[in-house]
Model the fold of this input.
Amino acid sequence: MEEYCERFNTVYNAIPQDIKPSPSLYLIDFPDGFDVDMEYQLRERDSETLEEMQDNAIKVEDNILAKKAKLKSKRRVTIKEEPSTFVVDHKIDNLVGVVNQMMQRVIDQTQVR
Done:
């Protein structure tokens, strides 16, 4: 994010003063370089200066990265969790029941022939 801000500032500062866009115009253009989520969040913050918008962009990025890390760690915990003994026993009981039903069908069909 900081790299993007630096590049944006470099390009903006390279524009000759007599044709440089107004501050309100570069506040409109700055968020266009991001994905839709980021752009929306930056526009919602209603920054008054480019510097404020760039500070907000860094904060928003930090929030997004923290949220992604939190979700990722939750997924890891969920995947690593062992099923309870009750769940395992219940699944085994269901499996045994299905196998017994299949065996009974086989027996029934062999008796019919």
